[in-house]
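Appendix B, example 12.
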Amino acid sequence: MNYSDQLSKAIEHFWRTRLEQGKKQGSTTGVKDAGGRSAVTGGAQLDGFIELLATILERAGLPDYTIFTKKTVLPGYFRPTKDWDLIAVVDGELLATVEFKSHVGPSFGNNFNNRVEEALGSAIDVLTAYREGAFKPSQKPWLGWLILLEDTCKSQSSVQVSEPHFKVFKEFKKASYVKRYELFCERLVRERLYDATCLLLSDRDGGVRGKYSEPNREINFKKFVTSLSAHTMAFVKMHE
């Protein structure tokens, strides 16, 4: 099924929510947070994506009471717990966990590194917890990671790297942040840390009208939800 219209609505919701939060912040105190912090701390920006994935899970055969967008805390191995954005738990079995992220400028450098470290840490933590029996009798849960990146000159421009002691891998030389995210999403799947990843681009002006682009077919939304739906339908069929 084509979910492009619903995805556009989720993109639109993200940008409009962010815009409204930016306007409202400081209206009572007269003081705005530095940079884009007010919009970041407002929350609810990615709710459109969470609701869309929940709908897709229902259409794949899951009852709505097995899909959690609240009470999404799961045990970890290197830390006690981790709060995911969406999980599916069916008859005591962990079916799927999904994390949604966004990255809006003007800061891309440190925030990119933070996103990478968060995604890697979350995957290793939950997969190790699974290996150690935290989710028995579950089979390996489906893991997904989706990020919406602002499409700007800064995110599209080439970035220099520092090489004081050793050379970085050649694919990172002068790679933009868009390209860095492409490589990261591809490698998360190829290293089997996540079952599927998705990278979406959207600029502020087009985003409020639901416009977006997908720079890499290997990590687009259709493949992301197809993988999740297939895993879910197979689970449902097996438990009929």
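The chain has eight helices and seven strands. The CA atoms of residues 80 and 104 lie 30 Å apart.
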